[in-house]
Amino acid sequence: MEQHQVVVIGAGPGGYRAAFMAADLGMQVTLIDPQANPGGVCLYRGCIPTKALLHLAKVKEEAMKAGEWGLTFENPKIDREKVKAWKESVVKQLTGGLGQLTKARKINYIRGLASFVDSTTLMVKAEGRRAEGQEGKVEEISIKGKEESTLIGFENLIIATGAVPIKLPFIKEFTDRIMNAEIALELKSIPKRLLVLGGGYIGMESATIYKALGSEVSLVEALPNIMYTMDQELVGIYLKQNKSLFADAWFETKVVALEEIQEKVVATLKSVDRDIEKKEFDAVLVSVGMRPNTGGLELEKAGVEVDQRGFIKTDEQGRTNVKNIFAIGDVSGGMLLAHKASYQGRIAAEVIAGQKSAFDARAIPAVVYTDPEIAVAGLSEQECQEKNISYRTVKFPWAASGRAVSMGEPVGLTKLIIEEGTERILGAGIVGRNAGDLISEAVLGIEMAARASDMALTIHPHPTVSETLMEAAELYYGHPVHIAPPKKRL
Amino acid sequence: MKQEIKLPEIADNVVSGFLARILVKVGDVIEKDQSIIEIETDKAATDIPAPIGGKIVDIRVHAGDEIRVGQTIMVVENDVRDVTDVKEVKGVKGVTEGKDVKVVMDAKSEAPHDLTSSRPHVLTPAYLVPASPSVRRFARELGLDINRVKGTGPGGRISNDDVKAHAKEVIQSPKSTQFAGYAEVPDFSKWGPVDYQPMSRIRTITAESTVNSWQTIPQVVQFDKADITEVEKFRLMSKTAVEKAGGKLTMTAILLKLSAMALRQFPKFNASVDMKNKQIVYKNYINIGIAVDTELGLLVPVVQDVDKKSLTELSVEINGIAERARNRKLTSEEMQGGNFTISNLGGIGGTSFTPIVYPNQVAILGVSKSGIEPVYRDGEFVPRTMLPLSLSYDHRLIDGADGARFLVWMCKVLEQPFLTWL
User: What is the arithmetic mean of pLDDT over A220-240?
Assistant: First the structure.
């Protein structure tokens, strides 16, 4: 049996980061994934293709809006096949690039599926059925001439198999009409009437894409509002801009049945205060959450423990209860975000290399790529209250930003949460164009334990929307430039 | 309802302890006052009783963790809401986390403790420590807890230099509990099955203090044998009288008394070396430590003012101390301030050994097993009870001749106790 120094299962953003880091630290690395190249859900069926399509949605929206500024375009024609091909070219370019980087690092890339035999041995099926991805729907992977299973031994292993969409109990399997987000990204058709089930960030981004492609989108959400766990002030500003996004929206409502009848889907809605209603759609997108992708891994054979929801339990170094086995990213729970997985991957690789690393991030930014974008980082006001931290929130409206107005994006808000006394920046929230790119400055500030004055005394380029961060920080001291100073605090 | 059990105050000036053992597990139904965990601080170990009863639904700590006073240990669920046991503490900052936090305290305690005011050393919660990622990493690499580093920057921000300064402090501190730079051990599982067990607090302290002593004190060992035939007779004769007083007249008690006399005779052995200020500290009191072998490991309680106590008093005191040591009831104060130490392994056996001088002391007396030996006396061999003694001493202060004189004096007095009357 072949012995491997470090094995990584799953080549998503967490897995490939871990593999690359381990290789760069001089270890021999084996990376196992069913796809031809690294990338995982993020590159193949998640972040990247979504953002490509959201970019199209954005361009269309801008073009339509330009009429108000004296630049009128004809109604755009949408060539679904061409859009699809462009999206796929983006995916191919990026995953291909990762494939080359894998080779350049002399990482042993095995295309296959792995399962545990014990805590030092894996069974790798070079040809197999994919357990991840479209749940309940198995996908054949053909690999030329290789059909056998091989046993490989490992010294250290990192599980990075990610998460898969939750399927509601009344859904037998996802289809082209009852879709999960991954199927929705395949753009097999543009349904006339689309029901989005779940108003979290995946539901909102998918709704934005399909609305731009011409669908009439409706929403069912079990909670009282969309993105209910996000800062609701930011969400409120987003909603002001998107009053007409949904044809219909039902809150505090659940879907209790979905039936496919003659190319239509009939959804049964049940809300707290209304009777049961039946509504007809051409397709339904289910985005109600994710569960850990551990099916087929046979964790119990290695003795790896999971929590009640099935996520693998780890310590701050990413180590599971089995000393030589680590788990990172979505499969280990917490916030299911690619950038968190990637950071954890780096830490796990360093720990295996003998470094004293640990995951101690102070701020994990979260971005919703809607139009406008919403981004948050660090502590929220609610968390500060729960932790009994005395804080003050300062908010700078984008209507006072020259850049925002000149881009035709005057609706936006930048807010900072600052600890009283130390004047440290503990949290930030931004709604507005490219909020996701802007938030990084605040993340660095939080990590560096920057004070509001550090941000206020840093020269920001003019005119940019990044100035809104500086102005918000100035507000803490009562002397912002582009809005009237608040009354003096005693 | 669910209630959190937090680490109560253990002793004065103790802000944290190491979790030696968890005595319960998730799912257990516990009763109020049942011991739930065992905490080790400096050198004492205590069981922590549950302030409330109920079913354990979550345990938030692991064996080997350092736990701060006020930190949540576990969560229990119970039907009865015992209002007297649960007191809400408002305005507690930095110690409590999460929603609906209640500080659960012993119902017997008179008032809720305000953790902010009575605990000046409450650590900043990890997510608030004002240090950049690279500084945090640097501290971790040195094996230091960033929470303990004092920041000198604006808003208390911790710089790389602050971490270095803290490292220096830790290394120079005699009570150092953090060491950096230990070498990795090989992976022994390559050669056969192994088990891993975290080092107990006592083991760690013993390891660190012996290394400290070994590295800083140039030690010489002097051996001798004392004829204790007469002393042994006296011991057996006086046994009952001491027993009546509640003590046990042992060789250790006798040696303790004699050592105090020797220390008066040879004050250098009661001194300490202060290299930093190039001075010798002579102490005008005689406190002697006694090494006690316990299940937890080696403990060295200190008997104070030995010279002012009678042999009977000392016998009673040793009895009490040894019992408290074995029942883990010694306080850290009882283990501080020793000038000299006696380590008696005679009860176990052995002909001689070389004890290690305690840090900040200059000598230690090792006692091995006594036996009857032929001694050539007045032209013939006579059977005498002989006691092997070894004296390790710090050559920085004590020269070979001093060491020999000290031990010879001890032996002579053991042979003829009346000599001390002269």
Answer: 94
Q: Are residues A194 and A205 in the same domain?
A: yes
Rounded mean pLDDT, B325-341: 86
**Which residue's entry shows tokens 């008690």?**
B253
Known active-site residue A460 = no
Tell me if residue A226 falls in helix, strand or coil. coil
Spatial distance between the Cα atoms of B210 and B221, rounded to a whole number of angstroms? 16
The residue of chain B with its CA nearest to that of A363 is B127
For chain B, the average pLDDT equals 82
Residues of B in contact with A317 (CB under 8 A): none
* Residues A331, A468 within the same domain: no
Judged by CB atoms closer than 8 Å, whether chains meet at A360 and B99 is answered as: no
Q: How far apart are CA A281 and CA A262, in angstroms?
A: 11
Question: In which band, very low, low, confident or very high, does the pLDDT at B1 lie, cut at 50, 70 and 90?
Answer: confident
Domain tally, chain A: 3
CB distance B91–A447 less than 8 Å?
no
Nearest-Cα distance to chain B for A360, in Å, is: 8
Give residue B43's pLDDT band: very low, low, confident or very high (50, 70, 90): low
Has the ipTM of the complex gone over 0.95?
Answer: no
- What is the C-alpha to C-alpha distance for residues A312 and A317, in angstroms, rounded to an integer? 13
Q: Which of B252, B208, B407, B244 is nearest to B345 (CA)?
A: B252
CA distance B97 to chain A (A): 6
Catalytic residue among A339, A460, A462, A479: A462
Q: Which residue of B has its CA nearest to A351?
A: B141
pLDDT digits (tens, 9 = 90+) for A279-338: 999 999 999 999 999 989 999 999 999 999 999 999 999 999 999 999 999 999 999 999
**B154 vs A358: CB contact, 8 Å cut-off?**
no
Q: Is B226 exposed, middle or buried (0-12, 13-18, 19+ CB in 10 A)?
A: buried
CATH number (domain holding residue A371): 3.30.390.30
